[in-house]
Amino acid sequence: MKNHVGELPKLYDAKRIEENTKKFWNQEDIYQLVKERKSQCPKFYFLDGPPFPSSDTPHIGTCWNKVLKDSVIRYHRSKGYNVRDQPGYDCHGLPIELAIEQKFGIKTKKDIEHIGLEEFVTDCREFAVNNSKSMTRTFQELGVWMDWAAPYMTHDDEYIESDWWSLKEAWKKGLFEHGLRVVHWCPRDETVLSDYEVVLEYKMLRDPSIYVKFQVEGKENEFVLIWTTTPWTLPSNVAIMVNPEAEYVKARLGNAVLILAKARIKSVEDKSQSQMEIIETFPGTRLEGLRYRSPLENLVTAQKKLIDARRIVLSKEYVTLEEGTGCVHSAPGHGEEDYQVGLQYNLPILMLVNDQGRFLEDAGKYSGKFAREANAEIIEDLKTNGSLLYAEEIEHRSPVCWRCKTPLIIRATDQWIVRVAHLKDTFIKEVEATRWVPDWAGASQFKNWLANLKDWVVSRQRFWGTPLPVWTCSACVEVQVIGSKEELLKRSSTPTIDLLNLHVPWVDKVKLRCKCGGEMTRIPDVMVGWYDSGAASYASLGHPKNPELTKYWWPADFIVEGRDQISGWFFSLLKAGVVTMGTSPYKTVLMHGFVLDDKGREMHKSLGNFVTSQEVIEKFGRDIFRYYVLQTTIWEDLRFSWDAIKQYSGDLSTFWNTYVFASTYMTLDKFQPQKWSLKKLAQSLRPEDKWLLSRTHRTIKEVTAAMEDYRIHEAVRKLKNFLIEDLSHTYVRYIRRRTWIEKETADKQSAYATLYFALKSALVMLTPILPFLTEAIYQDMFRNAEPKNPETAHLLEWPTYEDKMISDELEAEMDAAKTIASAVAVVRGEKALKQRQPVRRIIVASNSKTARSGLKTYSDLLLEQMNTRSLSGISVEKKTKYEQPESSAQFAKSNFPDGTVYLDLKLTRRDVAEGLARDIVRRIQQMRKEMDLKVDAYIEAKLIVPHKIRKLLRTQQRYLAHEVRAKRLTISTEKTGSQDGFSKAWEINKEKYEFILRELPVPKRNETRRKSS
Ligand SMILES: [Zn+2]
Ligand SMILES: [Zn+2]
Questions:
Q1: Percent over 70 (pLDDT), the chain
Q2: Around ion ligand 1, which residues have CB less than 5 A away?
Q3: I need a surface site. Which of 63, 156, 292, 843 has the fewest CB within 10 A?
């Protein structure tokens, strides 16, 4: 019958196998076939975490991520689920804007308006679309089966409408509002950053560290001593915080009296290299309400206006005695903690820095200067007016913008907010109801992150994003939140407006008429990209336009992303889900690590350590990439290593050789799994067959459990152990001689039936890991072997196991038998006795029950494997018999953990002849391979041997002829007659030999066929 993937190579050849498989999948549209077949099955909603299409080549970590997802999807299809597999792309956001800015060579937000928003936004869209197409091709190359024809793109109008709808829902519930918030701000990009983005990148920055005297109101020589590392926030000072629970002092320093925490005196003395004299000690509470003067009062306009407002306030949370002076300068417009205390004391929120990070007019002398750059000038002014006690520089980790590396500043700004801070308990309950793999991802990491839950600032002051659907009236206070395009057009004062798409600037052409008669225009903000991706659970379903679809699929059964998504996507999804749908949008979360280089550094193009999946594919292949990443403990970081990949490719060759062996012999013997079922053969199974069946059932059990728990790496490792140790190194070796038997005996068919079952089970379990290799093998060996086999390996049902087939005893006995066999191999090695040399007897002395019963259970197998005529077990007490002086020369021994093996070294003439014959067979086999003969081809063989050997070897003539498939075999001491054929000289046991082989014509059809290994 036709093999759909073409003829397969004898040796593992990833390129050829994978190209053939790809061709087959494309020609027969196998992906669609699989999806259709599963469409009536129970649902499994996999939700793709959308990558940013900010570059055309995905990071290798993203490829690991996609391969993990693919393995889960394939597993669930095999288990009989209708899997939703729509991929997504997170198209909006600053990284794309920055790329387009670069293209135009522009540096500020203003410049964008100069080149025109229409062109800018159109370019952003095109950039996102092109990169997502390129990334898709990479994922497809890796065999990732997702619905690539219809990904969800967060910039599609339909997706944007879903975002709008959900904001309107939040609005209706009173959870969407606008107000002042202290945020991290990038002065270069002129926008707010998320808390999540703030923690992404830090730099060691050198900043001033200064001690400044603030004069107590009405006291010429009395000062509150504060410490700050942000002199540029001093113009915005409105209060000083002290700790109500700490002791404070008035202390004399020169002519001045300073107020500071008692615990900080020593440190200040050290720094200023001067002695202080304590005049008075008192609790911090006594300072509350004390008014003071700002040292910048004469330079900063805003400070002049504040004279009556400035005072000392109390805070035990935010004033520590670990550093500084215990008197904390407070600027609620430039610090989150300051802001909280400011709200509590009803302090004015003074914020003197504009969007570009420059001082406003109210900053007086400093207006127009960049905030951080004004530090030096402010320090100089403090020195001049005598308020600076001491200044130094410190180096500290400060957040910088992860996109443009500019140091961030903190400012209070007007933002749009989705209120979630009050929902903390609900969130924690949802997190507890979610299944987390590993469990600490949720139980500790995510819960820790939620401890600092704040309201969600969703507005961004940029262009390429979902426009916030908020229209405000210029004449009154009316605010309208719009939930869909239809609603927008209905309410538009020009309903026939041609709206190209819902982005800026087109959407801003739509004006609404207010109740008051005034005109309503949209606010300029767009939405943070995290809101887009956070809405994915319902927005990708087109909610609320397709209620049936949502009802069927929602919520997601499974998501998987990297460990950075605790504070990212896992968090956004939860917030959007709870606010709009009322519950968490996912049931199971799997968290994976990062891909680093072999030294543990992040991979960057600039470091020269950036590796792409394409390079791995070109050098080794697609399956190996998958196998390599999938065996990595999922939640740990993967240190990428070419050496490791090379090693793993050896595993795949071993798998391949095992299949080639099985397929070759089963084909030769026309083995029919239908005819020779294991059930039918139950009575002819050997112990080693039963052992392999036990191992197979156990492997199915363990791999299934690992896949159910999303411990995919454990599944891969168990399968590897099964294929390499149990099948290749053990069983295949044990059954070789049984497969050489010509007749269709039940014994031989038992070996085939056992091997077939083991291989097919392993094959199905490998389909999620190695989709290309398994398809090729399936088409070659299994597809036509049984009438009900499906069109593709990827429609095979996941195998099931039976507990009654798993035998702890048989497996333990096999382990013991293998240990004994390797002890015997050690003896042979020490005595230079080849494995091919039969020995008379082997005695095993052991008191281990398992070792002794293992000897009995597997006695036939061990006799053959150890190449001995007899094998016996004795108790340890009886072993002296083989160790007495007269015996010790005859018996060689080796210890193993449970005892000792003894090998009888005495060889008869017959033993020597048999050993030699086997040596010769092995060399003739090698010559047959070099001649590239088919395994069932017949030959004529001439053996030219040393004179003294000829007679000895004649006793083995029949054996030799049979083993090497020779129709004629002659043994002589000289070359006679025709010398035609392939000739080769050999040295065996230091004697010279020559063998001449000639291939004979193919036997007729009904002729008895023999095989050789
Ligand atoms: Zn920036
Ligand atoms: Zn109005």
A1: 98
A2: 186, 188-189, 401, 403-404, 406
A3: 156
Ligand 2: centre distance to CA 446 (Å): 44
Ligand 2 centroid, distance to 465 Cα (angstroms): 27
How confident is the model over 300-323, as a mean pLDDT?
93
Relative to the alpha carbon of 461, which ligand is closest?
1
- Ligand having the closest approach to the CA of 405: 1
**pLDDT reported for residue 1003:** 57
User: Using one digit for the tens of pLDDT, what is the confidence trace for 329-364?
Assistant: 999 999 999 999 999 999 999 999 999 999 999 999
* Tokens at 764, concatenated: 């199905």
**Rounded to an integer, what distance in angstroms lies between the CA atom of residue 188 and that of residue 405?**
9
Whole-number Å distance, alpha carbon 492 to ligand 2 midpoint, is 14
- Centre of ligand 2 to C-alpha 831, Å, is 103
CA 631 – ligand 2 centroid, Å = 62
Count CB atoms within 10 A of the CB of residue 804: 7
Cβ count within 10 A of residue 347: 22
367 has a pLDDT exceeding 70 = yes
Q: Closest-lying ligand to the alpha carbon of 198?
A: 1
Find the 402 Cα to ligand 1 centroid distance in Å: 7
Question: In sequence order, what E strands does 219-314 have?
Answer: 222-228, 239-242, 247-253, 256-261, 277-283, 311-314
**Inter-residue contact 790 to 796 (CB < 8 Å):** yes
Distance 485 CA to ligand 2 centre (A): 22
Task: Report how far ligand 2's centroid is from the alpha carbon of 164 (Å).
Answer: 22
β-pair partners for 939: 966, 999
* Rounded Cα distance, 437 and 710, in Å: 7
Q: How far is the CA of 513 from the centre of ligand 2 (A)?
A: 8
Output b/e per residue, 46-75; b: 16+ Cβ within 10 A: bbbbbbbbbeebbbbbbbbbbbbbbbbbbb
Question: Using alpha carbons only, what angle is made at residue 902 by residues 901 and 905, rounded to the nearest 5 degrees?
Answer: 145
Query: What Rg do the C-alpha atoms of the chain give, in angstroms?
Result: 40
Spell out the alpha helix ranges (H) of 142-207: 157-172, 195-198
Total-model pTM: 0.88
Annotate 527-540 with DSSP letters as a single string. E-HHHHHHTHHHHT
Angle 405-411-417 (CA atoms, 0-180°, nearest 5)?
A: 100
| CA–centroid distance, residue 512 to ligand 2 (Å) | 10
Instruction: Supply 513's token pair.
Output: 């008429």
* pLDDT of 800 higher than 70: yes
Helices 712-721 & 622-630 angle (0-180, nearest 10): 110
- % of the chain at pLDDT higher than 90: 88
What is the 514 CA–ligand 2 centroid distance (Å)?
5
**Given the DSSP bridges, would you call strands 586-592 and 556-562 parallel, antiparallel or unpaired?**
parallel
What is the pLDDT, as a whole number, of residue 975? 80
- Residue 195: the pLDDT is 81
Please name which ligand lies nearest the alpha carbon of 479.
2
**d(Cα 756, Cα 492) in Å, to the nearest integer?**
70
| Ligand with minimal distance to 518 CA | 2
